[in-house]
Specification:
about 190 residues; alpha/beta; Pyruvate-ferredoxin Oxidoreductase, domain 3; six-stranded mixed sheet; 8 helices
Length: about 190
């Protein structure tokens, strides 16, 4: 198995923790794995991108446009912004939630209203999830990243037990129970 996953979101959404969980998942399954974090404006609200490549032999962590198996997006507009990375037949899984970028806040630009339509023109494999709403049901607004990983696991039919073990290995003990609940919520959503 070779798998290229681009995790995108904005600062503060947990993209980096999600990539570390995926890295641990790869190790548990004896895959070679390379991660690369591209912070951009990594302050809260700025775009954050993480490349995760896993498989038999990975030489570079970089994912090039039109070579990505999955774009896992924690924010709606970020899914569109990075959709050119998806390969033919690839999958876009996105959180149906808006975080207004600065040009929208200042009135210089408008937030697009047709994001899902535009995504479905790029690939027929588009999965929408309202992870923010689900995180409220879980009881923490800081677990949407793990909810999204649950949905990724289910969508790609990856080994669930390996994911749960990767969460146990990566998440601090005091936050483990809520993160395992979040993963299960995303998996079953």
């Amino acid at each position: 198995m070779n798998l290229n996953i681009l995790i995108v979101g904005v600062g503060g959404q947990g993209t980096l923790l999600a990539s570390r969980i995926l890295g641990d998942f790869a190790q548990i399954n004896n895959f070679d794995c390379k991660l690369s974090e591209v912070h951009g404006m990594a302050q809260r609200g700025g775009s954050v991108v993480t490349y995760v490549k896993m498989g038999d032999k990975i030489n570079s962590p970089i994912i090039y446009p039109e070579t990505c198996d999955v774009v896992l997006s924690f924010e709606k507009l970020e899914a569109l912004r990075y959709s050119h990375f998806i390969k033919n037949g690839g999958t876009i899984i996105y959180n149906d939630y808006k975080i207004m970028p600065l040009p929208v806040v200042t009135g210089a630009m408008e937030y697009p209203n047709d994001i899902e339509l535009r995504l479905t023109k790029i690939t027929k494999n588009v999965v929408r999830l309202n992870a923010d709403e689900l995180s409220k049901k879980v009881g923490s607004n800081k677990v949407l990243n793990v909810i999204m990983l649950g949905k990724l696991c289910k969508t790609l039919n990856l080994d669930k037990l390996s994911f749960e073990n990767a969460i146990k290995n990566t998440v601090p003990k005091q936050h483990l129970d809520v993160n395992l609940k979040a993963f299960e919520t995303g998996y079953n959503a």
